[in-house]
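Q: Hi! First time doing this. I have a protein sequence and I read that you can turn it into a structure. Is that right? Here it is:
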Amino acid sequence: MGRRRGRGECRGPVPAVVETSAGGVIYRRCGAAVHVLLIRDRYHHWGFPKGHLEGAETAADAALREVAEETGLTALRLGPRLHTIDWFFRFRGRLIHKYCHFYLIECPDGETCPQLEEGITECVWLPLDEAIASISYDNAREVLRIAAGQLRDSRDAPCSELAPFPPRNLQDH
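A: Yes, that's right. Below is the predicted 3D structure, encoded as structure tokens:
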């Protein structure tokens, strides 16, 4: 005698929950020198500020809000959308498919203040090539390479009067 199947007993693959976030590659330029802001998360990984869209917020608006919240920077100028990355992960037993839209964002001045309550432990400005070498995630590194190409192709972009930032060795943290 075969088993009878009632409602809810027939199971197939569980679909992933889709989440959408946005963030930014934040940069400062003076002449040919470009510095990029990386944040250090609670897992000691280096990446970019990003977070979930709220309500009817656009990805561009969310990117600016998240950068301001996570870094304390307010003099932000939204540039073009760079790239959208996606990845899968499990959280509390659920499969999540996350999409994150990244924008190029200029910040000509201002001091950083990491959002400690969100697990942001440090914010550092690094020369572009050092930032590419230091970022923790391959998909974020690809976003940074796209940003680097745009920044190198637009040398006459706005320039702030900033002294160069001292080099940092992120491996020591």
